[in-house]
Amino acid sequence: MIASMTGYGRAEAVLHGRSIAVEIKSVNSRYFEYSSRMPRSCAFMDDRLKKQLGASISRGKVELSLTLQTLEAADTVVEVNTALAASYRSALAQIGSQLGLEDDTTVSTLSRFADVLTVRRAETNEDELWGDVQTVCAAALEKFCEMRRVEGARLQEDVSARLCTIEEMVGRIEQLSAGRVSAYTEKLYARLQELLADRAVDDSRILTEAAIFADKTAVDEETVRLHSHIAQYRDILALSEPVGRKLDFLTQELNRETNTIGSKAQDLEITRLVVDMKAEIEKIREQIQNIE
Does domain 7-73+125-147 have CATH number 3.40.1130.10? Predict the structure, then answer.
């Protein structure tokens, strides 16, 4: 099933004391273009995330947003300098003894002295952090890809319907073209009889003119190729791989053959059909710009 290049997916989880959220979104692009926004502490994993996304996405301008919030209890470590606290306690006791003061030292009192308690950030375990982010990213990527598949199915349905419309128009052109040479021959013969009055009409000249007309206006080759391109289009739409570039090429071929028919048309109804076909092909072209 084909996939759209437009997609969005978001996932979040709390793992190992961290709240992690990953958001992935994409728009059309000829190639795979990756950009990201994330905390500085996660910069080491940027290339890994790009590789993770690239395994599932071949085309599109993709933006990844990673937010990380470390819960306070897990983020900080409080270190106690017991030896320093003991020194402060001893010094306070000495002051009390020398000055005849009551020793009312408490733990709270000691904790206020410099460097008795030191608060610092915990060491970051990069392997653990990467594993957690990778898990959340995989969940967001699955939602992202599912949205692209749903949109791709809608695009496939629309393009398939337009191909049927074009195919019907090609069939109508074939019907109109089938009798054009004989009609032209009859018209030419009648005109010459009118102009020449009682003189004989040169049948060989009529046949020569008819052959020239047929050569200039025949669209058999173009309609055969159009049928072939439409069949290829349907086969490609059924593939489960990126097909946007192939469809873009075939769309150009559809347009080229249609233009050739238009340049040969000497029939008002065929000209109208060509105009309608070009309009349908343009709508298809717009749709496949969003197909991966």
Answer: no
Note the pTM of the prediction, 2 decimals: 0.70
Distance in angstroms (rounded) separating the CA atoms of residues 30 and 245:
9
The pLDDT tens digits for 168-197 are 999 998 888 776 655 655 565 566 555 555
Q: Which residue has the tokens 């710009």?
A: 289
H/E segment holding residue 7:
strand 7-15
Here the contacts of 226-230 (C-beta below 8 Å, separation 24 or greater) are 226/166, 226/170, 226/254, 226/257, 226/258, 227/167, 227/170, 229/253, 229/254, 229/257, 230/163, 230/166, 230/167, 230/170, 230/254
Higher pLDDT, 71 or 122: 71
The domain ranges of the chain are 7-73+125-147, 82-115, 150-288
b or e along 278-289 (b: 16 or more beta carbons within 10 Å of the residue's beta carbon)? bebbeebbebbe
